Amino acid sequence: MVSVAVLGAAGGIGQSLSLLLKLNQSISRLALYDIVAIPGVATDISHINTNSTVEYYIGQARLSAALQDVDIVLIPAGIPRKPGMTRDDLFNINASIIRELVEAVADNCPSALIAIISNPVNFTVPIAAEILKARGVYNPQHLFGVTTLDAVRAARFVRDIRPNMDTSVYIPVVGGHSGNTIVPLLSFAEPQLDLGQEEIEELVHRIQYGGDEVVKAKSGAGSATLSMAYAAARFVKSLIQSFETDLVIVEPALVDLAADPQGARQIKSLGADGLAFFAVPVVLGKMGVKRIELLRGEPSVLERKGIEIAAAALKISIDKGISYVAKTS
Ligand code: NAI
């Protein structure tokens, strides 16, 4: 049985995600932490008659207690986008929140698997890595930036233009988690997709900027919360399934390529050379990243170009994340 902590559990994502995690019968303890409103959320969820016990922790003084004996830490704490904002605009506030939370993870449950949802993921994951390194507890296999929503959107948006397509279609999405760093590899879809060039270009654009549809529709009330909660709950379910079975379970995630140097070689050869982090299809396991799932075949010209564009933008984000930690240490 698995102990899971959600940091930022009273937020838009946090509440829905905690609800979905309460439905996961493999979870034995759900530790819900926030700086506001968490007693009500946790008490409400705790009445659902599934296996896990729900505990709540409010305020920084209770953060250490929340993290005791935790196997998986999910971090959706931080501010979301408003219309007109890019994910990068969230940098300063969310970087300091991530710093505080990851330091506490390092001190209290250094072996836990950490899944970061807080944006900009392209920055927050390198920041988390630097903090864990500084504390001497970094294991690249244990750290994930949650990019599952990009794959969820890809599968759903394909269905919007191909009504007969099963929504479980597998589409690898690589790169990062922001605008043009999101690179859906439609030519690797399983089952194969039969799409014209114009359809491909429109679909790629919609997957890259799908989050903007939600920000606009919510007109100032935030960004994706419900679909994000679904995506993160799916990620956790996959992770736990990989602990419990010998099945090969793959989810996309932004990871440190040092987690699997052999698998990283292929990604680097596609135009991501010199990058420490990249979103890739990951085979999950008890140790976190078991390996990077290799792509079988060659990406199209458009996909290769997409990877190069993503790599250039990601490099800037990663460097900024690393220098943020150096400057604020
Ligand atoms: P929200 O504002 O509804 O919730 C954020 C929660 O974090 C609040 O309950 C707040 O009290 C809490 N919080 C703030 N500072 C904290 C701290 N120091 N310690 C613990 N909790 C703290 O925001 P929402 O919509 O839930 O989004 C959360 C984050 O997730 C945002 O950064 C957003 O951009 C990101 N996001 C990520 C996606 C992804 O695919 N990875 C998709 C959509 C959003």
UniProtKB/TrEMBL annotation:
NCBIfam families: MDH_euk_gproteo. PROSITE patterns: MDH. Residues 3-145 form the Lactate/malate dehydrogenase N-terminal domain. NAD(+) binds at residues 8-14, 34, 94, 117-119, 228. Its EC number is 1.1.1.37. This is Malate dehydrogenase. Keywords: NAD, Oxidoreductase, Tricarboxylic acid cycle. The lineage of its organism: Eukaryota, Fungi, Fungi incertae sedis, Zoopagomycota, Kickxellomycotina. It comes from Coemansia reversa (strain ATCC 12441 / NRRL 1564).
